[in-house]
Records
---
Amino acid sequence: MSVTVRSYLGVGDDSSLGDDVLDGLTRPFKELPPKHLYDRAGAELFDRICELPEYYPTRAERAILAERSGDIAALTGAAEVVELGSGTAAKSRLLLSALAQAGTLRRYLPVDVTEGMIRDTGDALAAEYPGLDVHGIVGDFERHLGHLPAPTGPRIVAMLGGTIGNFTPGARRRFLRGVGRLLGPDGALLLGVDLVKDPARIEAAYDDGAGVTAAFNRNILRVVNRELEADFEPERFDHVAFFDREHEWIEMRLRAQQRMTVHVAGLGLTVGFAKREELRTEISAKFTPRRLVADLAAARLEPIELFTDSDALFGLTLARPVAAPRFRATRNRGFAVAA
Ligand SMILES: C[S@@+](CC[C@H](N)C(=O)[O-])C[C@H]1O[C@@H](n2cnc3c(N)ncnc32)[C@H](O)[C@@H]1O
């Protein structure tokens, strides 16, 4: 058993917050990427969101994993699990337990921007699963996946919690193509996606009565204040969440209650907000089975199984690389596809 944690978010390779703030707050339509919502406080708020009555995705995905992890273990025979955006790995334990019970589990490789979470989770899992090696990557899954070690056996790459929905469609397909290259020939992708449903149900999940999601959303301004010496007043921004029916995604925004000027001292930047001007902090795309299969195909992946919960709220797909066409050389005539 061993626990190794490597951080790629050190000095000179930070989480790109400065660049993202500079790019995102100087555009006509202001925007910050959702990864900056998750410092330690943000990660704790997200865990509270997962337990809210309105937030069905966690419960639904947990129910699928509780029922299907044994099948996933049998289908993959996985020796290792790479988890992208692992958080507290609360649900992944169901998968790890099934693999441990099947006797194949050797290694867990969590990847997340939140360092404390990787370290705490790594230590906890190593204690819970005797003989498990943990290789944690503190990094950005859009930039640091090249630091993952090569597979040591059949590998599952898991991205749970609907995190894939945070990408816009083109970026999502590019990302999935990159993930496909991490699988190896006998690996599989395990991807959790929130499904399209009644917009009122989706909107309630992102705008809970207790105001936890609002606090989570405003936390991004606290992160910018702390890391870049900015003077945002988070309470002067309203939390906005709505379902965009055309794109079939949720948007989370922060709306300035009045006209204001914000200074980001660390960047020497001054930003003006008009009254009711909005800053987008997250999109969360919702999927139909057809959209999911098309995305997978564009990344040269094919579904082995698509599991859903009993209310069809959430989907969990297991996918594998599409077998590459095998080519044989033919004399002087280039290549022909083998039968
Ligand atoms: C929606 S939460 C899901 C957490 C957990 N997988 C679950 O299912 O409950 C997204 C997670 O991805 C992480 N994350 C978001 N963007 C990331 C990025 N670009 N690179 C690495 N981790 C990221 C966050 O820190 C957070 O833990």
---
Amino acid sequence: MSLNRFREWRIDRMTDRIARKPHGKQARETYGSADAHSFAWEPVLEVLALGPTDRLLDVGCGGGVFLRHAQTQTGCDAVGVDHSRDMVRLAGPLAVLGEVEQLPFTDGEFTAVSSIVAFFFFPDPVRALREMRRVLAPYGRVAIYTTSPEAKGTMAAPYPLATRGHFYTDAELQQLPLEAGFSTARVSRPDEDGWAQLLFAQP
Ligand SMILES: C[S@@+](CC[C@H](N)C(=O)[O-])C[C@H]1O[C@@H](n2cnc3c(N)ncnc32)[C@H](O)[C@@H]1O
């Protein structure tokens, strides 16, 4: 293996371990902590406007802290999906193992889909959104909290991890759900630093 390929392999391994497919003790501590990415919760809950009749799917749920928060705050039914076995184990009975591009659920099962700080790892965003749309009821909605291009190189997306992320301008991000078959989409900037984007779309 050349030095360059070895370096790329190490960056891939590090990205997976800490964020893209988290596993190991440190990852369990990070994503099991009660406030993991809690800065995203209120903006996401605000646009989803969940209530006790809603059934929420959180994609890339990590340790499941948002799932439990959403349930407690809104009375909704909540389920998580993640492709990391460690995270699914950590999240407990509310979570199942699965890939965003092949969600292990039937058509129209959910009234809402969320995804927090996971979207920028999805290799094919349109395919991911098409799958989210498939599991949504016709009156459903999706809220995706992701990292903006301006965050590259900051603590929100430090290098070299940032080289493994997919970043979109607001216009590009808004276009993705429309390509995936959603009828409306809008992007807002939920934080003061401008390091985050909130995508909201409806089938
Ligand atoms: C940075 S963590 C965020 C976890 C959680 N949403 C939170 O806010 O604490 C990203 C999560 O997305 C999951 N993930 C990344 N790509 C995925 C994919 N293609 N399918 C399912 N889960 C994925 C990872 O395993 C990881 O748990």
